[in-house]
Amino acid sequence: MLLGYIIEVVKEIAVAEQYLTEVFNELQNKDIEEILAPGSNAFLGLQQLTRKKLSSFISSIESRADGVEISTKKAIQGNKFIDLMDNEQQVVFCGVHYHGKTTANLASELNKPEDAIRKLLRESFIIIRKNRNDTGIHQ
Amino acid sequence: MIQEYINSGILEAYVTGSASEEEVQELLHMKTIHPAVNHALEDLEKDMERLAQSMAVTPPARTWGKISDSIDELVLRHETNPEQFTERKETDYQDFDKRDNRSQYIEVESENNYMKVQKTWKWVFAAVFILGKIFLGCAIYFYLENRQAQQQLNELKTELRQLKK
Fold first, then answer.
1. Chain A residues 26-85 within an 8 A CB cutoff of chain B
2. Cα B19 versus chain centre, distance
3. Residue B58 phi/psi, 5° resolution?
4. A13 in contact with B, Cβ within 8 Å
5. For a designed S-S bond to A6, which of A16, A79, B56, B87 qualifies (C-beta 3.0 to 4.6 A apart)?
């Protein structure tokens, strides 16, 4: 699952594989304790570490590419849930989930209050939940 | 009140790692005292997993090999003595003979042909050299004396034979 998430961000399987290897290789004792702590979700813990690592990848795209190239490289394609979201929801959800931005950063970028950003984020999750049974994935 | 908190979007921010540290601490506290918050959080975590499952890709077999090699190396280091793999200060090279530093460096046999000795041995070697010279001088002196005495003895014998005739 983690490799699929990385591929959605970096778009290339070889690069994604390299990131996946680095995420596991760079795990510290503190990270492992947090991930395996009772009540915590191991996958989400690993995904959070991956997100932090990928944020530098996104920063490098933003600093090197022009506007059109940035939106192309940052776009998340082929995800049924993302396709169901409207443009604002996509910007917020992808910004937070794939590009490692905080809601405060997005509020500043989009010139909107943070509460509005969180509302959009919540709406994105409602879309995922409502359509989860249509994707053929079972619990 | 609790439903309002759940609907505020803070839970979504938490599962996507975009909440602030204060909000995270508040949420963890709320989670322990309000089962509704805990339940909502679990639902969101399942949503996140479902999203990931929808785009899941099986990693190539070689990927796990790369990861396990690195983990095995870390385990081996931990079991023996991880300190020996830590980098030391440059000045530690000068104190190689110290017991603690030996494990960090590989001992390589020196190709130098010279031998180090204590300075006090210099005087011992000088004394042996001088005594050697003195004994050599004495030996030459007594050898020459002995040869001269033999010559004189031979001359006396010759004179005695001539006198007898």
1. 41, 43-44, 47-48, 51-52, 78-81
2. 44
3. -75, 125
4. yes
5. A16
pTM above 0.80, yes or no: no
Helix pair angle (A42-64, A2-10), 10° resolution: 10
Cα–Cα distance between A101 and A108 in angstroms, integer? 11
- As a whole number of angstroms, the distance between CA A100 and CA A59 comes to 10
Are A19 and A63 spatial neighbours (Cβ–Cβ below 8 Å)? no
Residue A14, pLDDT score: 85
Amino acid, single-letter form, for residue B162 = Q
Chain A's closest residue to B69, CA to CA, is A25
Whole-number Å distance between alpha carbons of B117 and B94: 19
How many residues can be counted in chain A?
139
Calculate how close chain B gets to A69, using CA atoms only, in Å: 24
Q: What is the ipTM score, two decimals?
A: 0.79
Q: Check if A99 contacts B (Cβ < 8 Å).
A: no
